[in-house]
Write a structure and sequence with these properties.
The chain folds into two domains: about 160 residues, Jelly Rolls; about 100 residues, Jelly Rolls (Sandwich), CATH 2.60.120. By secondary structure, it is mainly beta.
């Protein structure tokens, strides 16, 4: 399925295949935002997504090109670049900002990244916020058997490698780099929900389902073996995980289990209980 086009913040051109008219979630994954690819003109103006709140889930940002600066009211900050992944646990709640890195903005360049929203089990939704900055060098890569590509293991385990991300529910997040002609079988736990998002390129799935750039293919449960053939050089993000079988209540940047919990989140945000930045004082 194709994504909807939208503008996020004051500098992100976004394609979003989920949620949408045909799919609300692929539990535990709630959202896929594909930012770019876009060319950033040199600027001294801060651009990106200014401070905003979150509670009850995690944001996962995978950078392919460009540099993104993060800071939040829990005291975390950092800059991620090509190949890096940022895994932020909003938990009980915080405010954060995601802006172009200042040096990158001044010189300009290509920007492309993916951001996922990942649900959290009810028992963990109010844990203290956490921040994982996963550098490209710390993410293991597994070569394909035919030598025509590789699999970066961000979370979970695959091919004898274990990703560095710490998660609250079982999941596997893989970044596939496929050369033209790559043909292999991806093996995942049968109990996992499975989706494939084509960042760029063109692939054939299980011999009869073609997918191309910025398309999401939902395989759902019981998709233990997935045959992938790349008709051109391709980049595919594999989203797989055990579904969280709990009620879901969402409102903007808050993901909870009941409407009462949503109302509490809104009240906490409006009363300043999700933290302040120094400039707010």
């Amino acid at each position: 399925m194709d994504g909807n086009k939208k503008l996020v913040g004051d500098g992100f051109d976004v394609t979003s295949p989920m949620p949408g008219p045909r799919i609300r979630q692929l539990s535990p994954y709630l959202l896929i935002d594909h930012i770019g690819p876009m060319q950033i003109a040199p600027t001294d103006t801060p651009l990106g997504s200014p401070p905003h709140p979150h509670r009850g889930f995690e944001t996962v940002t995978v950078v392919y090109d460009g540099y993104l600066a993060h800071r939040d009211t829990a005291g975390h900050d950092g800059t991620i670049g090509p190949g890096d992944v940022q895994w932020m646990t909003a938990g009980a709640g915080l405010r954060h900002a995601e802006m172009y890195d200042r040096d990158f903005a001044r010189r300009g360049g290509k920007l492309e990244l993916l951001q996922l929203w990942v649900n959290m089990p009810k028992a963990d939704k109010l844990v203290p916020p956490k921040y994982q900055e996963l550098r490209a060098a710390a993410i293991p890569s597994v070569a394909l058997p035919d030598g025509k590509g590789s699999i970066r293991v961000i979370a979970g385990s695959y091919g004898g490698a274990t990703g560095p991300a710490s998660t609250f529910s079982p999941m596997t997040l893989l970044d596939l780099h496929l050369g033209q002609g790559a043909d292999f079988t991806l093996t995942l736990p049968a109990a996992y929900n499975v989706g494939l998002y084509v960042v760029r390129g063109a692939v054939l799935i299980n011999g009869d389902r073609p997918a191309k750039t910025q398309q999401l293919v939902v395989l759902g449960w019981n998709s233990a073996d997935v045959q992938l053939t790349a008709s051109e050089d391709s980049l595919v993000l594999v989203l797989a995980g055990a579904p969280i079988e709990e009620p879901l209540a969402t409102y903007g940047p808050f993901v909870m289990n009941t409407n009462e919990e949503l109302m509490a989140a809104i009240a906490d945000f409006e009363s300043g209980n999700m933290g302040k930045f120094p400039e707010d004082e």
